[in-house]
């Protein structure tokens, strides 16, 4: 199929960017597909090809592309100015909406990305507790702040013992002192995690937990694991930070509410910006007071030239207002439909595959048994090759998925779109089964 304009664009990109693009995560071989425009669930590339967008810009586009209420709100705002050194009423409206929905969020602060949200959440926990270290989950991604990058690479083979994972650095030159202030926990290892939190409690500010870390396999946490983290942390005055940058989309009240986790601080991003750059840190009023100038403060100074810019604020409000409880229910049902369709296809064709995920997100693994944690989820070269074949099959068929094979659903998707996903997977599964015989 002709992709001449993408090839041409990539050649130009190589002249100005390392590897031709500005995000490591744009990882299509041998060259990326250049986007021209998006409309609802569809993305059109520069060569005029239409894709069903199952990527949604790393899950941010829960209402699809060019969602009309967002376009209208932003267009109005553009005429009135895009950023001020003054607060706006728009920021209060979006904050009130979020405080009204997310349990435990009484106050919040806006920033520009999920990375910043997690960073300020960690700083807030340090300021509250006076302790330097954090515990985080092996393999989990939380953005680009040094401490949260520890032990998130799958390139390392030296993982350490199962109940006490090693700390691995994410980039060459990562200071040893960063590694010293991180305790790596294994996902769904309730006993091991509790023991490590206990052992390091006197220097732990927080446990950082994404309720369903996507890069670590998009796996449901077991109730025992959630309880162990919550109770052990509480017993030792260690705060719990929920990174809901990606998984807030799991329900109207977010992901922690769905699994019974009661975090002290929540980091938000992606869907709360309606497709524009955003991040937020939320929590109970007394914790969020670390950002306040009240006597002696602020313990954590926080600013940002574009933080709470009114474009992101009005876009976020328009996008979030459309996401009613009924809409979240419909998205979750759509996720169930696709997950069960794929599982039926897997069993019909006798593939050694499994499916994980919840609500509007799912991930296909080339493993007979669904992984329980990051170590289970890491792919062998043969499993990676099988996932690459599935990803390529989808892209050739006009369904856009990331290299990980994660599928992200959005509100403009129709019943036909869901069936197309299942049928496309079924065609791939038939080919895969044929090759195996
Ligand atoms: N935390 C999680 C769980 C994420 O998925 C991401 C982004 N994929 C981030 C933090 C960082 O967010 P951003 O890319 O907006 O900096």
UniProtKB/TrEMBL annotation:
Pfam families recorded: Aminotran_3
Keywords: Pyridoxal phosphate
UniProt cofactor(s): pyridoxal 5'-phosphate
Domain of life: Bacteria
Example of a GO MF term: transaminase activity
Record family assignment: Belongs to the class-III pyridoxal-phosphate-dependent aminotransferase family.
UniProt protein name: Glutamate-1-semialdehyde 2,1-aminomutase
The organism of origin for this protein: Chelatococcus asaccharovorans
């Amino acid at each position: 199929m002709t992709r001449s304009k993408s090839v041409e664009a990539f050649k130009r990109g190589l002249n100005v960017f390392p590897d031709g693009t500005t995000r490591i995560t744009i990882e299509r071989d041998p060259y990326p597909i250049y986007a021209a425009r998006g409309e609802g669930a569809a993305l059109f590339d520069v060569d005029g090809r239409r894709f069903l967008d199952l990527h949604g810009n790393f899950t941010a586009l829960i209402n699809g592309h060019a969602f009309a209420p967002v376009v209208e709100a932003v267009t109005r705002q553009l005429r009135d100015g895009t950023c001020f050194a003054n607060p706006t009423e728009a920021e209060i409206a979006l904050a009130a909406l979020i405080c009204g929905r997310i349990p435990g969020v009484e106050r919040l602060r806006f920033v520009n990305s999920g990375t910043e949200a997690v960073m300020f959440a960690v700083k807030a926990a340090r300021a509250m507790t006076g302790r330097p270290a954090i515990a985080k989950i092996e393999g989990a991604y939380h953005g680009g702040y040094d401490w949260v990058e520890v032990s998130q690479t799958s390139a390392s083979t030296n993982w350490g013992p199962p109940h006490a994972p090693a700390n691995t650095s994410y980039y060459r030159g990562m200071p040893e002192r960063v590694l010293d202030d991180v305790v790596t926990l294994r996902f769904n290892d309730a006993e091991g995690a509790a023991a490590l939190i206990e052992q390091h409690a006197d220097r732990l500010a927080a446990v950082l937990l994404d309720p369903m870390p996507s890069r670590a396999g998009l796996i449901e946490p077991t109730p025992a694991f959630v309880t162990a983290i919550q109770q052990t942390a509480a017993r030792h005055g260690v705060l719990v930070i929920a990174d809901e940058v990606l998984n807030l989309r799991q329900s109207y009240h977010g992901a922690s509410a769905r699994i019974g986790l009661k975090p002290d601080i929540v980091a938000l991003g992606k869907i709360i910006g309606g497709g524009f750059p955003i991040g937020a840190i939320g929590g109970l009023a007394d914790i969020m007071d670390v950002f306040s100038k009240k006597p002696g403060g602020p313990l954590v100074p926080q600013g940002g030239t574009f933080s709470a810019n009114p474009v992101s604020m009005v876009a976020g409000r328009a996008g979030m207002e459309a996401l009613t409880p009924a809409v979240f229910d419909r998205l979750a049902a759509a996720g169930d439909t696709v997950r069960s369709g794929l599982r039926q296809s897997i069993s019909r064709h006798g593939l050694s595959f499994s499916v994980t995920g919840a609500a509007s997100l799912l991930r296909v693994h080339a493993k007979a048994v669904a992984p329980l944690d990051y170590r289970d989820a890491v792919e062998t070269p043969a499993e990676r090759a099988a996932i690459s074949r599935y990803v390529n099959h989808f892209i050739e068929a006009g369904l856009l998925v990331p290299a990980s094979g994660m599928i992200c659903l959005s509100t403009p998707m129709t019943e036909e779109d869901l069936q197309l996903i299942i049928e496309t997977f079924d065609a791939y599964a038939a080919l895969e089964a044929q090759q195996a015989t």
